[in-house]
User: Fold this.
Amino acid sequence: MTSESINLTTALSAFDALWSPRIVTRVNDYDVRIAKVAGEHIWHAHDDTDEFFLVLDGELRIALREEGGERTVTLPAGSVFVVPRGVEHKPSSQAGAAILMFEPTGTPTVGDRHEPVPARIDNTTGHVLGGPASG
Ligand code: NI
Assistant:
């Protein structure tokens, strides 16, 4: 956490890695994370927490496996969406997007249950912005 203001455009320009969130600040025991995404993430579920998404740029899709079946929500820039705890979901973006997530510190990006994690997906609880994992 910092006492300085954080410009999200500047923060996003500080890294290029896809599906590799950076922690921009914390609120109580929650992280505010930003990520650049393109292509598909993997099916996964967070058993103990909801997951908040805000689309900063581009368009994000989130496929959901709900009781009634599977559906996909389309989120243009400026949209927010919450994936409820326990619901399997798979974010994707054909053309690429920048997103902000709000979730408890320590929440792994691939959830508690997930498909095998391919190399293009970073299995992380978030990296420090500007830290050694930036790139
Ligand atoms: Ni998730």
Remarks:
- DSSP finds one helix and nine strands in the chain.
- The chain has a mean pLDDT of 93.
- Residues 8-13 form the longest helix (6 residues).
